[in-house]
Specification:
It is a single chain. This protein is mainly alpha-helical. Helix content is 75%, strand content 0%. It is built from 19 helices and no strands. It has helices spanning 8-11, 25-58, 67-90, 93-111, 116-144, 150-159, 162-178, 182-186, 189-204, 220-239, 246-263, 275-302, 308-311, 313-330, 337-358, 368-393, 399-428, 435-454, 456-459. The chain is globular and about 60 Å long. The two termini are 16 Å apart. Residues 1-16 have low confidence and may be disordered.
């Protein structure tokens, strides 16, 4: 099947400033439903990070402190693969409803857990559901909205993270203090259930699905499980990198290499023309940015004496820059996406280079806010452009697989690069004296973004 746009009149609309149809009567319900889903996932993500110390202490799970996040991430990797596969074989409607139900069930299990083991079961169920949801959201965007509305839809997905990023930790903290950490999970369930009736009429109106005929689709579930185990192994090894954890890291890397041969388009590592380069770009862009962002609060608190609250301000500036840039590109759907992605990489590279300077005690720490806001602008332009390129290059029946590959590249790129940062901090310095390792790491990530800028201009156009 060729990649044809289901809305040819809209796709061929005159060039120039464009007003999307996302909130027109015919699209309003799916838009509300999709925004609600992403917003709930974002609130849950930010809320759990805030409530984690309290819930771990309450359940006496100090030795398993990192595992609520690790279990969620590993299950998301499997869910991403499953969601992509089922969407390609049967369409996105069933997976979307099932994913919301799993997400709600996981919230219920975690919110009522009386032991750390039960909490981890809930987190696994949540992560599996969220992995499916994220893939299916992009598949539905490709089916529901015209081609020229896809930049606006990508901006909406980015914008759905802004409010949770700004107020999510505060709300979760207040809820934890006032009524307990359990309501960080339980309070989201009614809103998750509300999304189902919003999406049912949309699902019924989707075009008839044509099953995938793409090659090399066997063994994806096994590969997804291998990726989940590999991600968990690398995360555990990076948290406490010693001679004893080296074999764990090696096993994790071997499993990831095995899994990615199945889960990513052929030629991704070589930046093959078209889809492989689009997927690789997502891993390089998101991985380098997120890996540095993890260590910005460490640099500001340990080197410059910031409080935990003020150390997070650059992350807020980044979220605002991301949302603003995503909104701007949505009003210009005819921009050359490959070139815009190259600009995005260069903006992120400049931002990473700026953070490399700020890790020294003599540098003005306040520069972290504008510098990281520039990085957010690059991410807003880049992530949206990658999504538009991916949907444009994917045959309808293979959008699930390609979207899954994009999300996995993002996830695994981030895990691996964050792990490298952790190893450098532990071997070249410490969390109390992180300037040298963070400078080396930030320069390395800047180089990664510069390399990424060389890929889009030549190879993502197909």
């Amino acid at each position: 099947m060729t990649t044809t746009d289901p809305h040819p009149r809209q796709a061929d609309a005159p060039l120039g400033r464009y007003r999307s149809t996302l909130w027109h009567p015919g699209h309003r319900i799916p838009t509300i439903g999709l925004v609600l889903i992403i917003t709930l996932v974002a609130f849950e993500f930010m809320g759990v990070a805030t409530a984690l110390p309290t819930l771990v202490a309450d359940l006496h799970g100090g030795r398993l402190y990192a595992w609520p996040v690790a279990a969620f991430t590993a299950a998301s990797a499997v869910g991403t693969v499953v969601g992509g596969r089922i969407s390609d074989r049967r369409g996105p409607g069933g997976p979307m409803i099932g994913a919301i139900a799993l997400f709600a069930a996981g919230l219920l299990v975690a919110g009522t857990a009386r032991s750390m083991a039960i909490l981890l079961v809930g987190r696994v169920v949540q992560g599996f559901g969220v992995g499916i949801e994220v893939v299916v959201v992009y598949v539905m965007i490709g089916l529901v909205y015209p081609r020229r509305d896809r930049p606006a839809a990508a901006a909406l997905v980015a914008g759905a993270w802004v409010v949770p990023s700004l107020v999510g930790p505060l709300v979760a903290g207040l809820v934890t203090q006032a009524v307990g950490w359990r309501w960080v999970f339980l309070g989201i369930i009614p809103l998750a259930v509300l999304a189902i009736p919003l999406l049912v009429p949309v699902i019924r109106g989707l075009p008839k699905h044509e099953p995938s005929t793409g090659p090399g689709r066997r063994g994806l579930l096994v590969a997804g499980i291998a990726a989940a185990i590999g991600v968990s192994a690398c995360t555990a090894a990076a948290q406490r990198f010693t001679a004893l954890t080296v074999p764990v890291a090696v096993v994790g890397v071997v499993l990831l290499v095995f899994a990615l041969r199945r889960l990513l388009p052929a030629g991704t590592v070589r930046a093959g023309r078209g889809m492989p380069s689009v997927v690789l770009s997502r891993g390089l862009l998101a991985g380098s940015f997120a890996a540095v962002e993890v260590y910005i609060p460490l640099a500001l608190t340990s080197v410059h004496g910031f409080t935990p609250a003020t150390a997070g301000l650059p992350l807020t500036a980044s979220a605002l820059g991301w949302s603003g840039a995503a909104a701007w590109q949505s009003r210009h759907p005819d921009l050359h996406r490959s070139m815009l992605l190259r600009v995005a990489f260069l903006l992120v590279a400049a931002s990473l280079g700026g953070i490399a300077v700020i890790v020294w005690h003599w540098a003005p720490a306040w520069l972290a806010l504008p510098v990281w806001a520039v990085g957010g602008v690059g991410m807003g332009l880049g992530v949206a452009s990658i999504s538009v390129l991916l949907l444009g290059l994917s045959p309808v029946e293979d959008r699930g697989y390609n979207t899954s590959a994009m999300q996995l590249a993002d996830m695994i790129g981030t895990v691996v690069l964050v792990g490298i940062g952790g190893v450098l901090v532990n071997t070249l310095g410490s969390t109390a004296h992180p300037s040298v390792p963070l400078f080396v790491f930030d320069v390395l990530m800047c180089g990664t973004a510069v390399f990424g800028a060389m890929v889009p201009a030549r190879r993502t156009a197909g």
